[in-house]
Design a protein that fits this description.
Largest sheet: 9 strands, mixed
Helix content: 40-55%
CATH topology of the largest domain: Cytochrome Bc1 Complex, Chain A, domain 1
CATH superfamily of the largest domain: Metalloenzyme, LuxS/M16 peptidase-like
Number of domains: 4
Number of strands: 28
Number of helices: 36
Shape: globular
Structural class: alpha+beta
Mean pLDDT: 94
Radius of gyration: 28 Å
Low-confidence stretches: none
CATH class of the largest domain: Alpha Beta
CATH architecture of the largest domain: 2-Layer Sandwich
Strand content: 15-25%
């Protein structure tokens, strides 16, 4: 239907309407007259429909109330009494996005689906959840998702657990997360943005159940809501659904929260804070930060994004270069936070000498002064604008629907009472800032140089900090426990029993059937697999994927890694970290990023392994790039220059790059520990996995630390090995090429392939050589400065005679979203858990931000008992099948389409295997799943564990591990 301004539809008045060419959508602003709810609808041809309802939820302390509430409202509601409707939807819907997000000032509940019926099902569950949650009648939800006391069975001491509590213990174990929190507290004090909306573990136990409920009463009202709809949908049906079934039951409230700018300036010019450190050699951080304006100014946001990139994020960036040349730090980054009303702009020095805080400030301000006098580097500015232009044109947001990204952008203005349309007119803004007369220096002067709302933070490592935190926590627990009356103890025990009963009581069939699901007949029986062509022309294996790419060419240039001797495999990883950054014959360290940004929409380097089984694999060193078709010749030239003319003897540049890679690598180890533990565990059982570990994993990061030291002591050997590695890898014989673009632009990819091929030398002909590694299970733990654990168990199920099939994918859905979810997350208190069964015969089970070790591994080992005599109703099986198909049918970006084709080809998947797999999924029965208990029982005897976590916790469970090492040496 056509929405005309002034009209009233199902209680909504259409207030404004505007076509937004940049997103190819027609935007409408509506208001529900009775309840006061706001609604933004963007009409689009996009079939990936998005719904979101958001609330302004400014935190009032560090207890994490908004975050705990975000988890809790999705644990049952008026219409959907299931203990976990969110997980039920994950099991059995065709969603393309399903999540909830806590920000520093708002909470968002977004869903998306390409299926109209599924979309309405998702929307209804979320609307009922936010307005009528079961939190008022089930305190157990608060105890499970937020926090609760428990007594240690061994010591009898008092402890705390809970899903959000454990999540935040993990999140705030990372020094950079702690640094961000310290910056926010310094800038905003004890106001909305100074508080930790996610929750500080030290403060979470201060949250009472009544305060938790009052927060919901106060903020989860339609008058405080922001409803967003996007895509090709029946809008009249949506408005009727939202207005008639929910909003009509509420009357407008005038008691709405307002978020105002902070008037008070930081009291001290320099602030000091500490973070837990692993060793005495660990360096600290210095941060120079300020309030730079309001997030309701999209032009300022775009300008400061470009300024941040120009000043701080490339090797040519003058502020970054000045700080590193002054030997103040090892790496510099710009952090620009646009999620707060007053945006925070930070210059962060990593691996810093914290004694040089005054010099740090002086170098920054002198460099900014110099820029104001001499101007910005125009080449770098131009390349940065071109880079942003490419990203906006491509609209590649990974697994997040672009319609949701639009909604998130709109919230910057909408939440603070401004029209959201202007946030979605990015090309108009881009054209404005491309003007040669644009006042870049004025922005730098007003918002950075002469900003009175700024501060410096000295963030120092403290080896005793974690012990102090634990001491304070245990002292607090002891004092609380001592003060307990007998009645208090009885209450804790009573609540524990209630929670245990709540968690162990399965939802009845009637309750589960409240959540609507689709029928198997509504699923397309044809798999959605990318079409691709393979050729072998001129000695090069080629994969081509035709796609709608809007004039962009996506390319991957592969070099067979088997040509390298084993001792040089880590150097393939090192090449990935330094190429594209280090000097070349034609371009200096500073010039190279300007050239690549002008020509390429992206440039990165990886080591990729595609395994057929635990012994057979295809391994490549890969260059990944994308560029506009009209830039093909320039792209080919710069890529060739980087591959063949990089100067490994440029020691100063090499040292800086390696030091930066080491810092980023250590941060990755701490933030994505479950991935690193999975890679390490797989490496014990798979030749391809071992190569991945040596070039990307924990062993590689340890190698990188050694390289960092050797570059100061014996750099010649590093340089020589890099030269040798490049010389062996980059040959005609090793070259493979994959690309995707419009079919009419096919010759552009061919041109790049031929240009690179002609520049390569002839190498040594390989005779099917493969690296061979000993494959033996190994149980190992890596200790880190973490308050939680990441527990991985990996096994080779093919070794026991089982072959991959579609039924195993359904098993994965059941195990991940049923048994692991209930046992590891709900009962165990971990933030996340799951499993995967790979087509190469390997499987793994993981937990994420987990308070336990032994208990989790015992769950993994006993999973076979859960399905041995499983009884699954037809409806429940339909749900599991839907959830499985949904995982396979997620919309894919162009680079994901290319990656899928490459994986299929190099893993040597059989032709039409997806058809067989999908047929097996759609016809899975209860008996099929029960029979797989033998598979789980067989692998349960394998002892191949890998845990990353707290040192004391690991030592307390050392019987599980053959070896215990430091994660970061």
């Amino acid at each position: 239907m056509e929405l005309t301004p002034g009209a009233i539809v199902h209680g909504f008045m259409i207030k404004e309407k505007e076509y937004l060419p940049d997103i190819r959508g027609e935007a409408h602003l509506l208001e529900h007259l009775k309840s006061g709810a706001r609604l933004l609808y963007i009409k689009s041809e996009d079939e990936n429909k998005v719904f979101s309802i958001s609330f302004k939820t400014p935190p009032e302390d560090d207890c994490g109330t908004p975050h705990i509430l975000e988890h809790s409202v999705l644990c049952g509601s008026r219409k959907y009494a299931s203990k976990d409707p969110f997980n039920e939807l994950a099991k059995g819907s065709l969603n393309t996005f399903l999540n909830a997000l806590t920000y520093s000032d708002k909470t968002m509940y977004p869903v998306a689906s390409c299926n109209e019926e599924d979309f309405h099902n998702l929307m209804d569950v979320y609307l009922d959840a936010v307005f009528y949650p079961n939190i008022y009648t089930k305190k157990e939800i608060f105890m499970q998702e937020g926090w609760r006391y428990l007594f240690d069975q061994k010591t009898g001491g008092l402890d705390v657990t809970g899903v959000v509590y454990n999540e935040m213990k993990g999140a705030l174990s990372d020094p950079e997360s702690l640094l961000q929190s310290s910056i926010s507290r310094s800038l905003f004090g004890k106001t909305t943005y100074g508080f930790e909306s996610g929750g500080n573990p030290a403060a979470i136990p201060d949250l009472t159940y009544n305060a938790f409920l009052n927060f919901h009463r106060k903020y989860y009202h339609p008058s405080n809501s922001y409803i967003y709809l996007y895509g090709n949908m029946d809008i009249e049906r949506c408005l009727a659904h939202i207005g008639e079934e929910y909003l009509r039951d509420f009357t407008r409230s005038l008691d709405l929260p307002e978020i105002e700018a902070v008037q008070e300036l930081p009291k001290e010019k320099i602030s000091y804070a500490t973070f837990p450190a692993d060793n005495a050699e660990e360096k600290g951080y210095l941060a120079y930060f300020m309030n730079v304006g309001l997030c309701t100014d999209p032009e300022l946001i775009m300008a400061l994004q470009i300024i941040s990139y120009v000043l701080l994020e490339t090797n040519a960036s003058v502020v970054k270069t000045a700080l590193m040349d002054a030997k103040i730090c090892d790496e510099v980054e710009g952090w620009f936070d646009t999620t707060t009303y007053e945006m925070a702009f930070s210059i962060v020095a990593k691996g810093a000498d914290v004694s040089k805080a005054q010099e740090f400030e002086k170098v920054i301000e002198e460099t900014l002064q110099d820029i104001l006098e001499k101007g910005l580097d125009q080449d770098l500015l131009e390349s940065s604008i071109r880079r942003l232009s490419f990203l906006l044109k491509e609209e590649d947001y990974g697994t997040t629907p672009k319609g949701l990204i639009y909604g998130m952008k709109a919230m910057k203005n909408w939440l603070h009472g401004k029209n959201p349309f202007s946030t979605l007119c990015h090309f108009e803004l881009l054209d404005k800032i491309k003007n040669p007369e644009y006042d870049w220096l004025g922005i730098i002067e007003r918002h950075l140089f002469n900003n009175s709302k700024k501060n410096i933070l000295v963030f120092s490592p403290d080896q005793e900090k974690e012990k102090k935190i634990q001491y304070v926590f245990h002292e607090r627990m002891n004092s609380i426990q001592v003060a307990f009356t007998e009645k208090d103890r009885e209450q804790i025990e009573e609540e524990r029993e209630k929670l245990e009963k709540f968690q162990q009581t399965e939802d009845s069939r009637e309750i589960l059937e409240q959540i609507p699901i689709l029928k198997i007949e509504q699923i397309d029986p044809t798999p959605k697999t990318p079409e691709y062509k393979k050729n072998r022309e001129g000695g090069v294996e080629q994969i081509y994927v035709p796609m709608n790419s809007n004039g962009i060419v996506y390319a991957k240039i592969h070099f067979n890694i088997d040509s390298l001797p084993e001792v040089l495999l880590p150097y393939a990883g090192l090449l990935s970290d330094i190429l594209g950054k280090i000097d070349t014959k034609k371009y200096s360290y500073q010039e190279l990023p300007m050239v690549t940004n002008k020509i390429l929409g992206g440039l990165s380097f990886h080591n990729d392994v595609y395994s057929k089984n635990t012994e057979e694999y295809r391994g490549f060193w890969t260059l990944k790039t994308k560029f506009l078709k009209e830039d093909t010749e320039e792209a080919a030239e710069i890529i060739k220059e980087i591959l063949l003319n990089s100067d490994f003897t440029a020691l100063k540049s090499l040292q800086k790059i390696v030091r930066g890679a080491k810092i980023k690598g250590e941060n990755y180890l701490l933030n994505y520990s479950h991935f690193e533990a999975i890679y390490y565990s797989i490496a014990q059982l798979s030749a391809g996995g071992k190569i991945n570990e040596l070039t990307n994993g924990i062993e590689y990061h340890h190698f990188l630390s050694d390289v960092d030291k050797m570059l100061l002591e014996t750099p010649e050997s590093i340089v020589e090995n890099l030269k040798k590695t490049a010389e062996i890898l980059f040959t005609k014989e090793n070259l493979h090429f994959s690309f995707g673009c419009e079919e009419c632009d096919f010759e552009k990819g061919e041109y790049l392939q031929d240009y690179i091929y002609q520049g390569l030398k002839v190498g040594i002909k390989q005779q099917g050589q493969k690296h061979s590694f000993a494959q033996r299970p190994l149980s190992i733990a890596f200790s880190a400065n973490s308050a939680v654990q990441y527990n991985i168990f990996t096994a080779d199920y093919a070794k026991f005679g089982y072959k991959y099939c579609g039924t195993i994918e359904v098993l994965k859905t059941i195990l991940s979203l049923e048994f692991l979810w209930n046992e590891v997350r709900i009962k165990g208190g971990a933030y996340g858990s799951g499993c995967n069964f790979q087509k190469n015969g390997l499987c793994y089970f993981y937990s994420y931000r987990d308070p336990n070790i032994k208990e989790t591994y015992e769950v993994y080992k006993k999973l076979w008992k859960k399905i041995e005599n499983i009884e699954i109703s037809d409806r429940e099986m339909t749900k599991y099948i839907l959830g499985t198909i949904n995982r396979l049918d997620q919309p894919k970006t162009n680079i994901e389409l290319l990656n899928e084709a490459i994986h299929k080809e190099y893993s040597e998947e059989e032709k039409d295997s997806e058809i067989l797999e999908r047929t097996q999924i759609l016809h899975t029965t209860n008996q099929d799943i029960a029979q797989l208990s033998d598979l789980l029982k067989s692998i349960s005897a394998t002892e191949n564990y890998c845990t990353i976590g707290n040192e004391n916790k690991i030592n307390g469970n050392n019987s599980f591990f053959q070896s215990i090492k430091k994660l970061i040496p």
